[in-house]
Amino acid sequence: VNFNKYARLFGDENCCYLVLASVAEDTDPSIIKRLKEAMYSIAIDTTAKAPSLDEGLNFSISDGSILKKSRRLQNALIYKPLAASTDKPDKKTAVLVVAPSIAAIKIDNPAAFALARLKNIETMTDLKVDSERDMVIDGLKGREIKATAKEIKTGEQSYVYQAMLFDTAGYYYIVQGLCPMDNKAAMDKEFAAITSTFKLKKATNSQ
Description:
Strand content: 35-45%
Distance between the termini: 23 Å
């Protein structure tokens, strides 16, 4: 099936908003017309209180003692140290990303799937697994992996933490943390502590 995509970009010197829509190529023109009208009806209330970063997500997860939720990229939450730059994470300390899968898939072997997902980090190479274990958080079965890898750009060794939680409908949630090796001891505890606070929002249907 081919899709047509529509985009609207607007904002000011402080913030930019992007509205995207996709419809099948053979969609009724009247539906496309209503879709475009909806896109252009969006208005921003500059006096309103900013929503929480996890608003609209079907899960919640807490801040750590060092790493705090700093921004959201689509449905992914990005953590960085409280005092770090507002533009990008301070990789000298750590970065942590928490995100849901975008679709349900059949996962026959969660352990193998989690390892393959970890090896898919494009900025890292020479991955060496230190430990793997099964875990359960908020009733969801999961897999935790701790590893070391080399950053492709700098050649520096990094500590890599990953936890994946799987629901019964085929969706998963992933937590990935990276930090330099000299910060491993502190960040290992921080990554695990934040992961342990993951909870599904009971009032929201999964995905």
